[in-house]
C-alpha cells in the first residue's frame, strides 16, 4: 500500500503558529473540546470521582481530573491555563490573593530553616511577611538594602538560601530591576529567581522569558480591573504539581470559581487597558515633573535611569507612580484631601485613578529607618493612574497642588 504524504511533495514545512499576547489573553490555554465561548462558572464544591480505582488514582496524583474545589476546579483551571500561556510558563496555580501566592511559594521552597534573599523594595504586606511572620516559622529573609547593586545580592546568599525574590516594578517607588542579571546570579548558586510581576502584568513583561523561574501575581490589581481579589504562581508543571499536592492542598488558599471567571473576563482587555494606563501615567508624570511644588516624581520614564529602564521594559511601565511634595507629610495630606477626581483608596490598576500616602498606609508596617532605606519619603503620595482623560487628572492635581 502507498504511503500517504501529510503535505505535498516539496511544499514548504508549515510554520508553527505562535499566538501573540493580545490573542492569548482571549484564547490562551483553550483546550481541544472547549465548547463555551465564555469561561463557564462551575460553582460546586466537589466532583464525581467515577470508579473506586479512579478515586484512588486522582487522590494519589496519578491521574489528572477534578476532585474538590479547594484543590482544582474547571473555572479556576481556565484562568490558570490562560495565565500560564500569557506568562510563557508551563503551569499555574491561582490563589485566593497575591499574599497567599507569596506565602505559598515561600513555604514550599524555604521551609523549614531555609533562607530567602529579597529586594527591600517590596509591597508593605510582603515586607512584613518576610520580616515578621516567616522568621516565626524558621524561615529567615535577608532584605537587600541596595538592591540595584548585584554584588549586594551575591553577598547576601548563604548555603541555606532557597531562592531570590524581587518585585519589579516595585511598589510604591516603581524601581525597575534587571531580571536577567538576577536570574544569572540565582542560577550560579543553583537556586530559583521568583519575580513578583504584579505591576507589569504579562502585557508589559514576561519574566520567565528573561530567565526567572517562578512568577508571582496579585490578580487584585490590573488583571481584575479592581473587581476581585486573587493571586497566582506560574512555573514548571513539576513545581506547580508539587505545590498543589502539598502546601496548597493542605492549607487551602484556593480562589473561588466566581472570582476566577470574573478575572478571565477582565484579562480579555488587559492589553488595551495597560496601554491606556501607561499613556496616562506618562502624561501625568510629565506634568508633575515640571511642577514647582513637586520635589520628585517616581516613574521609570523620568530621571537619570530613564534610558536603562526603557531598555529593560520597552513596552511601558504601567499606571503606578508616586511623587514627593515639598513640605513632607503635612503638605502631602493637604494635596490628598483636596483632590476631587482621585479616590483615596488602597488599590492599583483600576479604571478610576487612586491616591494614597504609603508611609502611613500600605507601607505603615515599615519602621522610619526601613522607610528611608526603601526610599519612601514622608511627603510621598502614590498614584494609581486610571483610564480617565489625562487632562482631567492633570487639572485635578493642579488645583490640589495650588492649595499648598
Ligand atoms: C506588588 C504587590 N504584590 C503583592 C500584593 C498583595 O496582593 P493581594 O492584595 O492580592 O494579596 C500587592 C498588594 O498591593 C502588591 O502591590
UniProtKB/TrEMBL annotation:
GO terms for cellular component: cytoplasm. SUPFAM superfamilies: PLP-dependent transferases. Belongs to the trans-sulfuration enzymes family. GO terms for biological process: transsulfuration. Keywords: Hydrolase, Pyridoxal phosphate. The modification N6-(pyridoxal phosphate)lysine is found at residue 221. The keyword Hydrolase applies. Pfam families: Cys_Met_Meta_PP. Its cofactor is pyridoxal 5'-phosphate. GO terms for molecular function: carbon-sulfur lyase activity; hydrolase activity; pyridoxal phosphate binding. This is O-acetylhomoserine sulfhydrolase. It comes from Candidatus Kaiserbacteria bacterium GW2011_GWC2_52_8b. InterPro entries: Cys/Met-Metab_PyrdxlP-dep_enz, PyrdxlP-dep_Trfase, PyrdxlP-dep_Trfase_major, PyrdxlP-dep_Trfase_small. It comes from the Bacteria.
Amino acid at each position: 500500500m502507498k504511503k500517504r504524504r501529510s503535505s505535498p511533495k516539496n511544499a514548504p514545512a508549515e510554520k508553527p503558529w505562535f499566538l501573540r499576547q493580545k490573542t492569548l489573553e482571549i484564547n490562551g490555554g483553550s483546550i481541544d473540546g472547549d465548547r463555551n465561548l465564555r469561561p463557564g462558572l462551575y460553582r460546586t464544591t466537589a466532583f464525581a470521582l467515577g470508579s473506586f480505582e479512579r478515586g484512588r488514582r486522582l487522590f494519589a496524583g496519578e491521574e489528572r481530573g477534578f476532585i474538590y474545589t479547594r484543590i482544582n476546579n474547571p473555572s479556576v483551571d481556565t484562568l490558570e491555563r490562560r495565565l500560564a500561556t500569557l506568562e510563557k510558563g508551563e503551569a499555574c496555580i491561582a490563589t485566593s490573593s497575591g499574599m497567599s501566592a507569596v506565602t505559598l511559594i515561600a513555604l514550599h521552597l524555604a521551609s523549614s530553616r531555609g533562607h530567602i534573599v529579597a529586594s527591600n523594595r517590596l509591597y508593605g504586606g510582603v515586607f512584613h511577611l518576610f520580616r515578621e511572620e516567616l522568621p516565626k516559622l524558621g524561615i529567615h529573609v535577608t532584605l537587600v538594602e541596595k538592591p540595584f547593586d548585584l554584588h549586594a545580592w551575591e553577598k547576601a546568599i548563604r548555603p541555606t538560601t532557597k531562592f531570590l525574590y524581587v518585585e519589579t516594578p516595585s511598589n510604591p517607588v516603581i524601581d525597575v530591576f534587571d531580571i536577567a542579571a538576577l536570574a544569572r546570579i540565582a542560577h550560579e548558586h543553583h537556586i530559583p529567581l521568583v519575580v513578583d510581576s504584579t505591576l507589569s502584568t504579562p502585557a508589559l513583561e514576561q519574566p520567565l522569558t528573561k530567565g526567572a523561574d517562578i512568577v508571582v501575581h496579585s490578580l487584585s490589581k490590573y488583571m481584575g480591573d479592581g473587581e476581585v481579589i486573587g493571586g497566582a504562581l506560574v512555573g514548571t508543571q513539576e513545581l506547580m504539581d508539587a505545590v498543589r499536592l502539598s502546601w496548597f492542598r493542605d492549607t487551602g488558599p484556593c480562589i473561588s470559581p466566581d472570582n476566577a471567571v470574573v478575572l478571565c473576563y477582565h484579562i480579555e482587555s488587559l492589553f488595551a487597558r495597560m496601554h491606556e494606563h501607561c499613556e496616562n501615567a506618562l502624561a501625568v508624570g510629565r506634568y508633575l515633573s515640571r511642577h514647582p511644588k513637586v520635589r520628585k516624581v517616581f516613574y521609570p520614564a523620568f530621571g537619570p535611569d530613564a534610558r536603562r529602564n526603557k531598555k529593560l521594559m520597552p513596552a511601558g511601565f504601567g499606571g503606578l507612580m508616586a511623587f514627593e511634595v515639598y513640605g513632607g507629610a503635612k503638605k502631602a495630606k493637604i494635596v490628598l484631601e483636596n483632590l476631587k477626581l482621585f479616590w483615596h483608596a488602597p488599590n492599583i490598576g483600576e479604571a478610576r485613578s487612586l491616591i494614597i500616602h504609603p508611609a502611613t498606609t500600605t507601607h505603615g508596617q515599615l519602621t522610619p529607618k526601613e522607610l528611608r532605606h526603601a526610599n519612601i519619603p514622608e511627603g510621598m503620595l502614590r498614584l494609581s493612574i486610571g483610564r480617565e482623560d489625562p487632562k482631567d487628572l492633570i487639572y485635578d492635581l493642579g488645583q490640589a497642588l495650588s492649595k499648598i
